[in-house]
Amino acid sequence: MAYVMELKMFFFFFLFFFSFLLVLFFSLLFSFFFFFSDVCNVQVFNCLCGLAGKVNDFLKAYCYLNLLCSMKKVKNGIGIIAVLVFVFSHASLAQEMLKPDSNGIKLRNFYLGLNVEKLWIGGHHVNWETGEPDDSNATHDVKTHCSAFTAAACERMNIYILRPPQHKQGLLANAQYDWLKTDEAYKAGWRPISGNDEFAVYNSAQEYADKGYVVAAVFQNPDKHKPGHAALIMPDERTIGKIKEEGPEVIQAGQHNYAGASLIVGFKNHITKWPETGIEFYYNVNRKF
């Protein structure tokens, strides 16, 4: 009997070790895709990561079951049922869908009407309010226009966020990051989104947007002489599991302009780990829709 117990415990720890190696493998695979590939490969990574998570959950559930059996805690199948209920309830939570309400749908339609994929194009000096090119000879403030787009969208909803002429277009995202922490921002209706961890913050950011609140995501470059990034959270149907893997949906200008993309894609050039703790989220209490 003792020999059988030792074998079960060895098998238990072996499965956990194998599970750890599996997660490590996909983490390394993620690093390759993330730093050397394009958006398509990031999406491939998300699929692989999801598969790894399901295999990992199965292995852990199997290990728990074996441990319970070896400790003689399972009687009349009650322990088995409890474990299965736990596993399937966890999977059900991951598939819970966040959906925009009527206000969120109106906000989504408003964002789509801004035509961000054809305006605020990087490499051109643009009118920050319209996104139209306005100076073909300009050599400054021509790289990307993420913060200008964010400011323009907010302006059209009568919501103030730091913008020209109070700050030039160059390095505006870094300045918006600092400004959103000020009393002036608080008086303008901006409130930080917080949570127990980054995934809880991601969920809350998506939920606020789905209810029609304007939600800004901002990143400040550690090198103040280099640009940060700013985007708005797009109301969207997303599962809790997808938000955990990719973050909330964003609409943005930048090196790539997206009318809809995952946070992990939109902030790709600024994310060093996942979840990324350097991105901060704010919602505005002065809801437009």
What would you note in describing this structure?
- With 289 residues, this protein is an alpha+beta fold.
- It has 2 domains: 2-94; 98-284, Alpha-Beta Complex (endopeptidase fold (from Nostoc punctiforme)).
- It is 49% helix and 13% strand.
- The chain has 10 helices and 10 strands.
- It has helices spanning 2-36, 39-70, 78-94, 102-112, 146-156, 172-179, 183-187, 198-210, 240-246, 263-266; strands at 97-98, 125-126, 133-135, 190-192, 215-219, 229-233, 238-239, 249-252, 258-262, 279-284.
- Strands 4-10-5-6-8-9 form a 6-stranded antiparallel sheet, with helices on both faces.
- Helix 1 (2-36) runs antiparallel to helix 2 and helix 2 (39-70) runs antiparallel to helix 3.
- The chain is globular.
- Mean pLDDT is 81; it is low at 33-49, 71-76 and 80-93.
